[in-house]
Amino acid sequence: MRIIIYTGKGGVGKTSIAAATAVKMAKQGKRTLILSTDAAHSLADSLDMRIGPEPVSNSENLWGQEVNSLRETEKNWGIVQGWLTALLDKAQLTDIATEEMLVFPGMEELFSLLQIKEHTQSGKYDVVVVDCAPTGETLRLLSYPNVLNWWLEKMFPNERRLIKLVRPVAKFINNVDLPSDDVLDSVEQLARSLEELQRIVLDPEMTSVRLVLNPEKMVLAEAKRSFTYLNLFGFNTDAVIVNRVLPNEAGEGFFAYWRDIQKKYEEEIIMNFQPLPILKAPMMPKEVIGLPVLEELADIVFKDQNPSTILYRGRTEKIREEDGGMVLELSIPFVEKSDLDLTQTGDELTVNAGAYKRKVILPRPLIGRQVTGAKFSEDRLLIRFGERNLAEGNEEQ
Question: Which domains are assigned to the chain?
């Protein structure tokens, strides 16, 4: 079983790349499901076929699904939401805005991602390709099970016994309905499901994430931020797809300026994401709609590679605690120690390697910490950070 998750900033064309990947693998004889968890679905438009909230067979070996987040929320959170609604109703808080608050930020995306777990356990497919919501932030939500699991194991049994004990008294005194066993069971089941989902998506032999971006400044900045967090939370990113690259013919006339800009950012992409495989998808001469065009696009992007294989193993960025400080470990192959130079400005780290620059957006655990030292060994740059000092957020090292 293989799971390939595509993510990237909105508008970069990740749906087209994900759909092209699925079409190519289906042509290779693999039972392939292309799954969209993006609330603003465009997968059906890309495939040029009607699909729905359940998998629909589009052609031989190919199924498509656009997850209905509202339905998944009701399925996974409906019992709890019903209890919360009744509670707020007694407090005379019944306006629409209050009811919307009963689904916490990010939960709908998480409920949609639970479809990955269901399809993995069903055994119906060889490959599941996920067209994820337009940011890597959704995947960060999958760190929640760690907290939920701790709460369930350490607190839940005692809290559950306490609730059962005081439920009759609380209702008599305050006219408050404490959560029933159904509500508590629902919370526990959700936590267990999220924990299983986390196990699946963090398994580097099963799941990989692929970043889709365009060679543009703002898109590249967002991709670097997402990449840092994917590494921080342990996801295996196995490729970067640079989409909508202008052809060399665009080097003259109206598009000449834009072709030069793209070349500049293509070099920066190589420096920032190596040693990951960096695949290129050209600006196609026609709309990327329908199976024939998607298959053509996949052939260009992957060439002779099998898109279902794991294209890279290993994390290119790691963070760990060490002797009271924090260490950021970066993979920077093919350079000499004498070529490296390091600068910190606020929450951004710039690594100069010869003629190239690599900018790293620092994740929260490193924000407010200043670089205290660095060493380079075996193609890896180890950067040590001292204690947190938020007052020094914009000083340079």
Answer: 1-314 (3.40.50.300), 317-388 (2.60.40.790)
